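#lab-general

N.A. 3:47 PM
ok so I finally got the sequence cleaned up, no stray characters, all 728 residues accounted for. can someone with queue access submit it? mine expired

B.Y. 3:52 PM
send it over

N.A. 3:53 PM
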Amino acid sequence: MREPRSAALLFCALGHVATTLATQANGQPPRVLAGRATSPIQVDAFLNEPAWRDAGVIADLSQQSPRPGASTPYRTEVRVLVDDDTLYLGITCFDPDPSRVAVHTMQRDGDLTGDDTVAIILDPFGDRTTGYFFQLNAAGARQDGVYSDPENIPLDWDGIWDARARLTTQGWTAEIAIPSRSLRFPKGQTVWGFNVERRIAHDRVVVRWAGTTLDSLLGDLRRAGELSGVENLRQGKGWSVSPYGLARSERDFTTGQATTSTDGGLDVSYSLGPGLTGVFTLNTDFAETEVDTRQINLTRFPLFYPEKRQFFNDGSNQFSFGLGLEEEFIPFFSRRAGLLDGQQVPIRDGIKLVGRQDRWGIGVLDVQTEDIPAAPGSNLFAGRVTYDVDQHLRLGAIATDGNPDGVHDNSLVGVDAVWRTSTFHGDKNFAVGVWGVRTDGDVPTGKRGGYGLKIDYPNDLWDVSVTYTEFGDGLDPALGFLPRPGTQWYTSGLSYQPRPQHGWWAGWVRQFKFELEPQVVTDLKGTTQSWSVFTAPVNVEMQSGDGFEVNWQPQFERLDAPFEIAKDVVIPAGSYRFDRFRAEVDTSLHRPWQSSTQVWFGTFYTGRMVEWIQSLAFTMPGGHLQLKLSADNAFGHLPQGGFAERVWQLNVVFAFTPDLLLSAYAQYDNDSDNLGVNTRLRWTVKAGTDLYVVWNHGWLHPEAEERWSVLRPISDQAVVKLRYTWRS
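B.Y. 4:20 PM
back already:
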């Protein structure tokens, strides 16, 4: 093993401990001084280069969960270096039983929930409002994101950085290199916000450098430590050029038509300031984007599907609006650009401006779509600006213009304000958010505005929230997502989550969760349209990581018109009161074999319904092979008729290395009687250069055929795409 243990390194570690204790004793955040790399660093997770001897050292991390401050056998050393262009981190994770280090994936942005990981938080502006998130598991799988909401760190940003990890006889090590050109920061900024967290999956222990109470969120930059010695990092000239080229072959088995084509395009970005980036895109392509996950819809309203296209995801945090709106209302929903009723619409060109300038956050997007048979081309615009009054209060405004149908006019304007603190009653999290919007143009008659208020107290023992929202019947955001206009929502949540410290159950139970979430939705005149009360009288998280839950959810639905819930099954207009029950059992995510079973049962409108949601997953040791089988089956028994809705999914991922992965995702649903397979090979030749080979194939189950195994091919598509990034 090439792991240096020198007297110089020990001296640095002892010196850092003394410095950290001194700053913490004075109530100041801990600080680490990055060492200067005077010789080359090879990112290979061996940490054997001479430069590491001069690194700034965090000698150990403190337990954050489940018992803050308690000792653990999981010692963690963090070393920090910088040169002119790169921030380096070397992390040594000691484990008394390295054979238990958990790894389930090598996939970029894969699910690392049950893995041993290290995570880095950077706040290069030092303003405690916007941060970068980097995470790495013990096999070298990476996740990253840019965020401004400490409760929600989206993983939709794919930055250019390099990292390696390897298992050792003492645990595992990680080596991370983050180019300064991948970050935005003011020139000469002497201190960055900084935090490090390690998760030990098999023992379900979290250790962290700063912010080590149970109520402290890793993403809360107000609780972060400080990193100095970064003032000489350079951002280069700010140019980034990413051209791509592809070859595509398509065949439609229904018409017998087959085509082959080639295409190309590029993205050009330029740094307009220390934190502001402008991007120009030409002939944007999304051939490598993963397909949507199919869902069963037994409601009267459209389902939400997340954005997966990288061009729109980069910088999307700048368009976040309000506090906790989530899927009820999104003023700017980027899937409206380039997609129309599920059909792809080519984007000819576009510009984007995202980032921060002093206290200002800016997000501007303008794209021009091409003509398609279903709609003429249209210009679509979205703009968002925020201003940080201080570390607690953020004010913002948003505007959109354009309609994806290319025919009708539509615009939206809105304002919002969010106030947050992590020192409420000492060290508790508390937030208040208000917002208001209005649409104009070719919109329905009625009330064109909407507004809302949320009060949130998200903490470990008590998690409490109260929300009121109103959406006018004329509120129609053509570039947004609003499934239920013309409604008023009264929503609250109360969760009491004790962690037993004494008694016989303390050795078995990690945390109880007793939940109560009532919700009432009315029309604008106050007539109740629906209500539900979700309760969790039993929700237990075991020390082993396994869990089980029992729920009762009484519901009410008013149908103003007949509702076809399934093919040829129509529920008459009227008022319906029914009770749904759920039992759920989940195994711990750190194990090679994982399973989850949910069963919903009880009355449903005029009859009864049972829904089984099951999954079974297996991971080969080391994370090279990952298999997951999922099934969602809903069986309804109503006087109007019976129905069976099914969605079956199989996901297979084989990773040769974290930079070379082959995946196949198969989905079947009996609503469309379609089986689709999305196969993707992704080879990251080097950071910023990727080769994709994508094959999509679809089969249809003939409607008159009773045997489900009989399938007829309907479509086939193969794409080879290469993208290269040059930066200066």
